[in-house]
Design a protein that fits this description.
binds adenine; binds zinc ion; alpha/beta
Length: 386
């Protein structure tokens, strides 16, 4: 049978979706149609079905060991790990740098446009299966161009999967290009200029990689230029760095969101300002525990951040490395910190309001969330605060 390339890609995207999600042609929101909705009574079930946005997700951090081995093999590349299991065993991190060393090594299997397509398509299938309705996705082009991969190869592969998912998975997406802060601002500017012809596909500019010894102010000129060009600006700050790093990012980079930001809580004045301006913080609890920002989930400051009135969102950062996607982040944080259904809905609400979507699209998603909250029965023991 002859099928078009488009039909092939669509069937590829749909092949692992659970039954209720395949009904993407249905015009009703998935959660509003009883035929598509399982009885969701536990907190984990409530989280699984809840519409949400993901705003802090590195596409290279979704490279599951199985796919890494498969792509490495088809590209004839040697890896330090003979199979997926031994790679997983190596994912035992002391800190951010020990993770980044492995992350950049694993990323080196990505060579061809189809590698970037397959990586992105796999994440989008997973996101749709977790009721992520909107995803703002980071990519790290310098980690590829430094290996001789053309920017065009990277962005065409990623964008191809995003376009197919928008059509077939009923999910909206935006792309944020991150600048690697362990490299120089000159190299970042060079990357930025190379990316400009592709700006129709790029919503935002971010800043990631090693925070220690690479303060935000090193990238002031680049962010100034990106601001003038009209990009959404975000930056990792307050992950390993302290409150001064968050303060500096806010004061020098004109950012409208802070990625991580958990160390802002060391500075009461900074917290007051973040609350007053409702600057969103994209918090990633499993990442913070695996990179030893907090000794355990029970010691994470997420709940205190919410109690202070900060605009916190929950995200998965690099889920292939940190033991879970966005729903696992919600579930493990809820269990360890005693988050209540009202907290979970607040986090999901924040994820939409903190997104870069337009007002109308935000409102549609917020309405979907509101309906879900009203219509989803919870076991009485879980129902205390709704
Ligand atoms: N790149 C990928 N994941 C990151 C993280 N958690 N912090 C900084 N840079 C990253
Ligand atoms: Zn990150």
């Amino acid at each position: 049978m002859n099928i078009s390339a488009q039909e092939y890609r669509t069937s590829f995207l749909l092949r692992t979706l659970p039954a209720e999600c395949k009904a993407v042609s249905c015009s009703m929101p998935r959660h509003a149609n009883p035929k598509h909705t399982a009885a969701m009574t536990t907190l984990a079930g409530f989280i699984a079905g809840m519409p949400k946005a993901e705003l802090h997700l590195h596409i290279e951090g979704t490279l599951e060991p199985e796919l890494m081995i498969e792509i490495g093999r088809r590209n004839g590349l040697e890896l330090p790990w003979p199979d997926a299991e031994s790679a997983r065993r190596a994912y035992n991190f002391r800190d951010l740098q020990s993770f980044l060393d492995i992350y950049y090594r694993a990323t080196s299997v990505l060579v061809h446009e189809e590698d970037f397509y397959d990586l992105t398509a796999a994440y989008l299938r997973k996101a749709a299966s977790q009721n992520v309705r909107h995803a703002e996705i980071f990519f790290d082009p310098q980690s590829h161009t430094a290996r001789g991969i053309a920017f065009e190869t990277v962005i065409r592969g990623i964008e191809g999967a995003l376009q197919d998912a928008r059509r077939s998975l009923n999910l909206s997406t935006k792309l944020i290009m991150c600048i690697l802060r362990h490299l120089s601002e000159r190299e970042g500017l060079e990357m930025f200029r190379q990316a400009l012809p592709w700006r129709r596909w790029i919503t935002g500019i971010g800043l990631d990689s090693a925070e220690r010894d690479n303060p935000p102010s090193r990238f002031r000129n680049l962010f100034e230029l990106a601001h003038r060009e009209g990009f959404l600006l975000v930056a990792h700050a307050g992950e390993e760095g302290g409150a001064p790093s968050v303060r500096e990012a806010l004061d020098t980079l004109q950012i409208s969101r802070i990625d991580h930001g958990v160390h802002c809580m060391e500075d009461d004045g900074l917290v007051a300002e973040l609350v007053r301006r409702q600057i969103p913080l994209t918090v990633c609890p499993l990442s913070n525990v695996r990179l030893r920002v907090f000794p355990s989930m029970r010691e994470h400051n997420l709940k205190r951040m919410l109690q202070r009135g900060l605009c916190v969102t929950l995200n998965s950062d690099d889920p292939a490395y940190f033991g879970g996607y966005v729903n696992e982040n919600y579930t493990e944080a809820a269990e360890a910190l005693g988050l209540l259904p009202g907290d979970l809905v607040q986090l999901a609400r924040n994820s939409f309001t903190a997104s870069s979507l337009g007002t109308l699209q935000k409102q549609l998603y917020l309405n979907e969330l509101r309906r879900y909250d009203i219509e989803t029965p919870l076991q009485p023991s879980e129902n205390r605060t709704r």
